[in-house]
Amino acid sequence: MKLYDFDAMFDKKLSEYMEKNAGKYTEKQWEDIIPGLYKKFGDTKISALNCSPNAYYAAMGDAALVKTLCAHLKQGVPVSEYLCNAIESRNAPGLLLPLLDGSEDEKEYALNLIGSAEEALPKLMSMLCDPSSSEDIKNRCVDLVKEKADVVAAEAKRNYHSGTEKEYMLEILSRTVVKDDEVYNILINEFRSDPENVPMHAGYLAAYGDERALPVLLDKIDEDGITFVEYQELKFAIESLGGVYEKERDFSNDPYYQLIKSHSVSIADIFDNLN
Description:
Elements: H1 6-20, H2 27-41, H3 53-58, H4 62-75, H5 81-90, H6 93-96, H7 104-114, H8 121-128, H9 135-146, H10 153-162, H11 166-173, H12 181-193, H13 198-208, H14 214-221, H15 228-240, H16 255-274
Helix pairs in contact: 4-5, 7-9, 8-9, 9-11, 10-11, 12-13, 13-15, 14-15
């Protein structure tokens, strides 16, 4: 299969263009101009092909586009946005699912192109629970699954109760929209029973959005031993649920608070010196 490195072609044209316009634009202006030039290049006719990059991929069938993507990855030829955009435009996630069993590069591209399509959710959940999956892949999977959390809620609850990737399952359950007493109890019990990860669990309760958690959060934020980081996350969770906490707290001995305060002072000093 003949592959074309359209990005290299663009880079060559861009270098020529920048040489002709040397000194005309600042570095920041070039940063704003280049994406527009890249987009325009996608519709520029290339003599060797007698068509533009976008037209070249538009003429391919769905399966041929995916095959071309795999060939690029296997042969180390850069994958252009033109190819990715063409695949996304077909809305055919089923053709990309086999790539989720391929190389890390194939998995990464497939995840980016499939997104949170419902037909991919079973495979994404499987990858999330697969011990052989890298943390990067798991994090990408959970980000996608969270977008359709209600669809996988039952499976997430089963995995949680069996001890399978509990933290990821909590993250998914916290994004469900349909309120469920079982989910609420799971999240509140984890908050109460895991004092080492208060900020994380407070964030889950904030994301879930059940006001019943307010008394528990208010009791926790009022404890004397909480850290400044915990205080910040608890206060955010309380306010996101419609609550208010206005009691003055002293964190002057907290290392993180001291770091933040020190940084704030240094920034203030810089601005003072500019006046």
